[in-house]
Each structure stands twice: as C-alpha cells, then as structure tokens.
Design brief:
- This protein is an alpha/beta fold.
- It folds into 2 domains: about 130 residues, 3-Layer(aba) Sandwich (Rossmann fold), CATH 3.40.50.2300; about 140 residues, Response regulator (Rossmann fold).
- Helices cover about 45% and strands about 15% of the residues.
- The chain contains 12 helices and 12 strands.
- Strands 2-1-3-4-5-11 form a 6-stranded parallel β-sheet, with helices on both faces. The protein has a 6-stranded mixed β-sheet with strand order 7-6-8-9-10-12, with helices on both faces.
- Helix 6 links the parallel strand 6 and strand 7.
- It is globular.
C-alpha cells in the first residue's frame, strides 16, 4: 500500500515538474502565422509593373511579411487575371493587392475574396464597386490635365491635337484621357481632330493604331499638331510610328509613364514631355495599407501617389532620376 502511495506522489511530481518546465521554456502565446499577401498587377512585361513589384518587395521586407507576385503576361488577358485572383482565393492568402484590368469584370472576384475573409486593396486603377479596404493610385484625371496643359503650352494655344486612347474598360487610363480632354477644351485655339481610336495593350497593337492615326490625321498637314498617349505601351507604339514616318521631333508629343527608350526619346527631343507616376511608391503604399488593415490599424480609403511632368529641362535632377530609374535590383535581386 505504501509503495502504491509513493508511486502516486512520484507520478504527480513528474507531471508537475515537466509541465512547469514546458511553461518556463515557452511563456508567451504562439505568434500569429506570417502574413502572405498576393500582389496582382495588370501585366508583368512593362517597366511600370517592375517598379511596382520592387516597391511591394520593399514594404514586405520592412514589415516582415511575404508577398507573392503574379499576374497575366499581357495587359489584355482579362481571363488570366480573373483566374489568378480565384487561385489566390483558393490558396487562402492573407490579403490580395490588385490592379484590376477592367473596372467591372473584377468586382465579382473581389467580392468573393472578401466573403472568404480575404481583404482586398485596389491599386493603380479603380474598381466600379466591391467592398475594398483601400484604393492606392495616381489621381489620374489630374495627371491627364497636367498633360493637356503642357500640350497647350507647347502649341502656343493653337493647333490640332490627336489623342490615342489605351483600351476600353481601363479606369486609370480613361481618367487620364478625360483629364487631358478637359484641359484641351479650355483652350479655344486647340482643335481636337481625333479622340476615339484605341492603341490596345501591347506595343505592337499601339504601333499599328498609331500608323493608321498618323496617316489619316497628321500626314501632309501643315498645321502644328500635338499627340497625347496615356500609358507606356501607347507612348512607345506612337514613338515607333513617328520615327518610321520621319515625324519624330516634328510633332509635339506628350506621353505617359517611362522606360529607358522613352526617357532617351525625351533626351533627344523626340518626346516633348512624359507624365510620370510613382509606381515604386504605389507598390510600397499598397502593401503597407494591406498590412496595416490586417493588423487592425485604420487605413485611408484613398491614397494619391502623385504624378510629375518630366522634360529635357528636369530629366537629370536627382528627384526625377530616382523616379525614372529606381534601384529595382536592390529589391528584386536581378
């Protein structure tokens, strides 16, 4: 009997000893799982999106979260982008940061994500509805007006103006186009000769549309003519068409966004000005907004990431050099 009682006490002592030892080694509650955030651009080939990726990577590093960067290759693959969103919903990521290719077509997918307790931050281009945590983008209408005012200045308030649009359903570029038109219409001496042609999502389609537009609206005209394009692909496509037609540098040309070739065209006078967004800052602030939301902090419903007008006069200033050529390799490792 005594032996049985003694064994009982020894067993209780061992349980107490090992239990206390475990608590002493791990006095805190287990930390929450590391956040995994999907960042989905409109495309992955343009320089603009590479800068967005770098900014997102910087935010992820600073905030100790993981990002997964994935989007369609080209900016006209709407089904591809919808499939990417659905895939991340199925993977149960912590949050989705999305630049929608179409302002209406992605609403259903965004609402599905939110119903599954996966919050969504929209960036670059607005969504026509949907329950989102925040919207981070350029004030695109204001940026378009900036381009229109520079065009009026370049033409001395007198001349013919051509607008090559991007593609239907893209809210960001539509706002730029409308802002440009608003500014142009404030100058009675400017005549808008075309505003209903679309360049499409690739340089190739924009080049073809630019050739047709130049042939029908510009070639042979003796009047001063200005051309505006609202994104990287339309700007580069128009530049190539102007070069082929021997008109580069002869027409006033204001474009949007930057790449090495577009910046070089500004330097040599083939493009008069570029309106530049801050894609690095856009990626950074979008991920930062998502992390703040996931961690319970209040976030702004709308954040303007700003726009600058760049020409030969300010191209080599430190501020513009950093905007034009951010250090992507530092954050992307390539």
């Amino acid at each position: 009997m005594r032996r049985q009682i003694l064994r009982g006490f020894l067993g209780l002592g061992a349980t107490w000893l090992f239990g206390c030892g475990k608590k002493a080694a791990d006095p805190q509650k287990p930390s929450a799982a590391r956040l995994r955030i999907a960042v989905i651009p409109k495309g992955t080939t343009h320089e603009f999106w590479k800068s967005v990726h770098a900014g997102a990577a910087k935010a992820a590093q600073e905030l100790s979260v993981d990002i997964v960067w994935k989007g369609p290759l080209k900016e006209d693959d709407l089904k591809g982008q919808v499939d990417v969103v659905q895939s991340f919903i199925a993977q149960r990521v912590s949050g989705i940061v999305l630049a929608p290719l179409n302002d209406k077509a992605l609403v259903g997918s965004v609402n599905t994500a939110v119903e599954q307790k996966i919050p969504v931050v929209i960036f670059d281009s607005a969504l026509a509805g949907g329950n989102i945590a925040s919207f981070v983008a350029t004030d695109n209408r204001a940026a378009g007006r900036l381009a229109g005012e520079r065009m009026a200045q370049l033409l001395g308030d007198k001349g013919k103006v051509v607008l090559l649009r991007y593609q239907e359903g893209s809210a960001s570029t539509h706002e730029r186009e409308e802002g440009f038109l608003e500014a142009v219409r404030q100058h009675a001496g400017l005549e808008l000769v075309s505003d209903n042609q679309y360049g499409g999502a690739t340089t190739e389609s924009a080049f073809a549309a630019s050739e047709r537009l130049l042939l029908s609206k510009v070639a042979g005209s003796e009047a001063s003519t200005g051309v505006f394009t609202p994104n990287e692909s339309t700007t580069f496509g128009m530049l190539l068409a102007l070069q082929k037609a021997k008109l580069a540098g002869k027409l006033k040309f204001v474009g949007f966004d930057a790449s090495d070739k577009l910046v070089q065209a500004v330097r040599v006078g083939e493009i008069d000005a570029l309106v530049l967004q801050n894609p690095f800052n856009m990626g950074y602030l979008s991920v930062k907004a998502m992390v703040s939301h996931l961690r319970g902090a209040a976030v702004e419903a709308r954040t303007d990431t700003g726009a600058k007008l760049v020409d030969k006069a300010n191209l080599d200033t430190p501020e513009i050099k950093e905007l034009v050529k951010p250090d992507l390799a530092k954050w992307l490792g390539k």
